[in-house]
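<discrete_fold_record>
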Amino acid sequence: MAFDARHVYYDGKVQQSHGDVFRTIDPSTGNTLADIHSANPTDVDVAIFSASKAFPSWSSTPPMARSRILLKAVSLLRERNDEIAKLETSDTGKPFSETSTVDVVTGADVVEYFAGLVAGGGLNGETIQLREDAWVYTKKEPLGVCAGIGAWNYPIQIALWKSAPCLAAGNTMVYKPSEVTPLHAQVLAEIYTEAGLPPGVFNVVYGAGDVGGYLTSHPRIAKVSFTGQVATGKKVAGSAAGNMKYVTMELGGKSPIIVLPDADIENAVDGAMMANFFSTGQVCTNGTRVFVPEPMKSAFEQKLLEKMQYIRAGNLSNAETNFGPLVSRMHYEKVMGYISHGIKVDKAKLLYGGLEKPEGLPEDLTNGYWVRPTIFTDCTDSMKIIKEEIFGPVLNILTYKNIEEAVERANNTELGLAAGVFGRDLNMAHKVVSRLEAGITWINTWGESPAEMSVGGWKQSGVGVENGRRGIEAWVRNKSTLVDMSDTIQTVFAKL
């Protein structure tokens, strides 16, 4: 096995787990990476108790002092970038060329952003003078013990997106990584501890949905932050709301790209490829429905086929590799099922890819969960591959006659995570993107999500936002106080 076994982490150190044991797998080879020891209910109880015990002291620590600890964690994350990136590559199957430049880097940026925000007065409230002798002041107070439920596609990044504002605001956290990609969690906990985070402020439990369900429904948990598929998110949100817990939900998408008639074809193709093949298509915001004007279809497809040669599957540590396997056997079978359905049932035209594995894979990778990047064209809105989230490297081309039609069809989905527009006329691009029903939108680019940018889904794609100035608001509650200094009490119960 490539890595040490994982156990629960609380009170600032690794502790013995008492649940079942499962294994995490290298998706590129199908080989075992490590034994993961699940938490049982008692383990979860103890981790939550550790977080509860740490909360009074941590929440009363001045924001500037909390900021210094988080900035030390940022420094450690950046020093160990390549080490953590290699671990993420092993666990997720993403090329090192990606994990070393995106996953840790963007997560550390978010920690730095929120550390700076709270140090610079980001938790300050308001002061309002009602009249000469009466004032109202507000305070932003932490919620308490929070649960973070991670996703398997960006493990360390999502763990940092959740823990950074949570801890900066003065809360404590019990974090459960996805059982598919769990290796990062202990590394992050140890970095936080080394940076000076007091014992119990950040804790880790491992396990599948039963562990997550027990954690999120626990009466001591004040908030649940979840990233994952829509169906699971609804269950988590329903349970949390029923117990009056705060929630942030970042769920799935079926995002549209509208290529405007005046768009530069090469730029639009580059954007569409990034929106569908980066991270092997395992990105919530994937722009899987690409709407192209009918007269542009042939030229768009030709340019797309020219550029498919630049997708390079292979040894994940090779700097030239930019395309990896799917994350697990179960997910591989799901994505292959969608590709098969697109060919055999939807009868979409297969322009590239299909059911075979990428050509030229080294012998030691042939047992991994590899799939060819795939392009369907001549698609219609009623096809299953158009309506349902595939979460794999499958790009679907649809044509449209006019922009009004394209916008209407782009919005014809229950999901609303992301959307984008490509075109030279920026005035028109702004008009079109303003009509798209999605919480994250781009013009002439795709996928960038800096720490300063608040992101979150509309419709069935989520509740609340992460990152940006609004991101901190998801981790605090408001207290308003009215102070009357007049030395008299206004009362109706006075002598007539």
